[in-house]
Batch of 4 targets.
Target 1
Amino acid sequence: MPITILIAEDQRLFRQSLRMLLEHERDLVVVGEAMDGRQAFDLAVERKPGIVLMDVDMPRLDGITATRLIRSCVPDSKVLMLSVHDDDARIVAAVQAGACGYILKDADHQEFLRIIRATFKGEPVRSAFMPDGFAKKAVALVNKQDESGVRGLTLLTDREREILACAAAGGSNKDIADQLCVSLDTVKTHLHHIYQKLKVSGRVEAVLTYLGNS
């Protein structure tokens, strides 16, 4: 059975070149192309590819946020991040988002194919083009930040936990306000405090932190 692949890359030339490379392989089938993070998420939900090749820098919805959403809604799809960057923060963010690997764009085509096939089989791999020591450092930083998320949840008040639980259940701010008989401004204020305590940038990250530690 072939490995189905979704390519999420905003640079058309790179995206088309990558598709041509993959379609020369009998065991690989490209099932879609996305030019932004939102389209990548929508196509992943619709087509459920075995592998998503996701660029870190994407318009509309960045690659790391799109990865979080894909891994949450389509857990069987494995995500490999693509980037020209090799800094710690991006590797940690990609791993935390649920990415199975991280490939630098200067990898040669044999390296690309090797990592795709190994990732699909569930084998732990990383790009040989990634600087030495980065993988271990990334794991250590992820563990440290995961512990931070757990600590953050313990700082929440009962009302904040209640609001976060409603948000995790899919409720809008208005839904939460109506359900808890409070004003819309009160909900927004509580959410702001929740984001600060969890050290997250917004609703999606807060919900994922809650789901991952509840």
Target 2
Amino acid sequence: MRNCLNDLKNNFDFFLRNHITLSRKNYTEKAEDIGDIVIEDDNKNFLEKLKKSYDLELLKPSTKRNFLENLYFLNLFNKHFSKNNRQNNFILDIGSKNWSYVKSEYVFSKSVSQSFVLNGIEIDPYRLCSNLYNRLEIAKYYTKGLENTNYIIGDLMTHNQKYNYIIWILPFITEYPLLRWGLPLKYFKPKEMLEHAYNLLNKNGEMLIINQGEHEYDIQKNLNRTLKLNAEYFGETEDIFGLFKNKRYCCKITKS
């Protein structure tokens, strides 16, 4: 009963914000001195390894929190994605929200390709954040100056471009978080969406999925098995900087 009431409310709210797009304009953040960040001795090697492979200056200007968030994701891509070194690569981020971590994807993309296209797709870009900017306005700030980077407003299920890499952070694989984030239940299609995302991969393409909590990670494993996908499981991700309230888990799907 509660889910039904939440679903009715979400349908109404979702309709309104897609037809009456409210937001403050020109979102900005005050850049902070990243040199003030203290890296514990146990983690300095991790940072040095990233510096050898990537231009970390591209993660700036930034707040300290955002810089560390991008380091976290860049480290995951570095550890788990294969570097195909093709002349052209196409990269997709599913469910980009305000795309605060886009620079990590951009830096990785530049490291594997002479030319690339980085797309983020978001079905609910007009959702207002607590600062009264919507996700789209905030994403404009984070993507500013990043060439070949596109924030796509749309439904993954109607998107049909092919990709070499797909990144999917916290997919909705249970109803509760989807409803909490304000989406109608008609968009709860975990199996169908995973199958469609897999079909967007080129041959030898890779999809990295990050789940929240061990329960969702187990559901993800079952979905992968049901669809008979070639998956590797890496377990809990290392949250070196203590950024997240809940533990995160990671797997990679490869299309043969």
Target 3
Amino acid sequence: MTTRIVGIGGTVNTGSSTEQAMRLAAAAAEAAGAEVTIFGGDYLRGLPHYRGEGYGIQDGAEFVEAVRQADGLIISAPGYHGSISGLVKNALDYLEDLAKDERPYLDGRAVGLIATAYGDQATMSTLQTLRSVVHALRGWPTPMGATVRVYHGLFSPDGECLEDRARMQIELVGQQTYRGACALSQGECNQ
């Protein structure tokens, strides 16, 4: 059985640290055996406000269907003014389309969380907000949630995390998301 994980995250800036962190966690899940689908900042930036002006029924359909089929998610959000960005929140609002599914919202799915910001206080409040949103959507946050203080040079141009503490946290989020997704779906995990 294939364990499917969806990665969501980024900012309005292509290749942001937030997206690179999500991709690193997704790579750790993939190395453990998951099939991963990524929805980064470029994709999220193209989503109109959920059910707002300019919204069409096909907007976000690929994203919603990927989450519907997923066993787990990795969500990476930047800390803006002590909370998650509107870009990431808007994407999560699209999960309302899963409300009437047999498995509504994020029910039965492991969810790894990553919060990035320039300051430690913002990473913690952003992580807490992400946990609250995931609980409201009936998801199962992983025990480890990464709080990553970003700065120029944290990631190399090819996406390698150059700080051991941050890299270990991010990879652990990916690994726990995979293991949690396997456990919740009662599938077979590679060890």
Target 4
Amino acid sequence: MAIRNQLKATFFLAYPVMLSQLGQVSVGIADSMMVGRLGALPLAASSLANSIFFVTLMFGIGISMGVTPLVSKAAGKQKISRITRLFGHSFWINVLSSILLFLFVLGFTPWMSVLNQPEEVTELALPYLLIISASLIPLMIFQTFKQVAEGLSMTKQAMVITLFGNLVNVFFNWLLIWGIWGFPELGLNGAGWATLLSRVVMMVVMGGYLLYAKRFEVYHFSLRITKPSLAIATRILKIGIPTGFQFIFEVSAFSAAAIMMGWIGVKELAGHQIALNLASISYMMATGLATAGMIRVSYFVGVGDFRGMREAGMVAFGMVICFMFCCALVFFGARFFLPSLYIQDPEVISLAASLLVLAGFFQISDGIQVVGLGVHRGLEDVKVPTLITFFAYWGLGLPLGYLIAFPLGYAERGIWVGLVIGLSVTAILLLYRFHRLSKDKVKALMA
């Protein structure tokens, strides 16, 4: 019965986050599908720009997630004033972080030539990169509202707002890429402006909800910090910064893979972008289960129920294995159809289909590792998982991918084999670590 209750509670927390994350990643999916109609060159430029931007974006999202387990734990202890203070500190941490991240991308743009990409791809990617990077600021503010609400186990509202934002993005894509209804025809840059506008809308709507809805009146949320506390800010950053690095090590590995793919050719890069776009759908939905696992684990830690904490974590692992197995079957069965939604070039479709087979093989590992990072975040155990991700991707996966792709001559498939290895090692180590840590906490409670 306890496991059934855990399954039910985790599901009702997870599915809105999964749909919300699906909506979030769908902004990029919609951009790629609509940009793909312009041809392989704009799609390759989009891949290059998004490879750089996504690393920065995920680091920012990692920082924003530092507040969620702390809010959930405070909710378990019924400390309302602490939740209020956590919100204020998180808001300003995220505002300053987003500005710094935008300036980082701005400072990197003169050095894009060092990536050794085709000149025409780099030239087209640069203005698009600057536009989507500006969307970091409204997105990080949106993340503040979203992560605090999720820490309070309120996940449906962000789902609705994110899906609405995705519709706004598609609408402005349609207007600005092709210049409909008298709007300027901006091509790839139009997709960038659509992304920026949709994230501003999401920020305003989610902020209005959290600040003015009656259900949050008890918390007296405000954009001002009434009692600044270095201790609270440090506590948020001690979780948020390592979480950001965890995301960076994984996402940057895929970005480095995109750069290596550009060394092979434009069509290989376009095929990689399509396969990666599709794999990101299942990954981002799996982060919904990771978020639910994190919320449940941190809540049980807050109330002192370590047996419930262990059960919550293990249930999240089991659920993500089942979900990602289904995703793998979809990738295997629809490997030629799915790329055709992006582009009509037969060579690019064939390349993407071969990579989707490999994506199918790493689905379960990808799900386990993302939930592993989530439940460890719920325990505020972030340092060792961060080192695990660095070793698995940069110490093992990428070097092996380069070796298999270039010296051994397996080209684009070799790069992805390396990624499969990195994800699998991460999954095994994180699952084992949670099993050991949670078991030790239960034994200590019973002693």
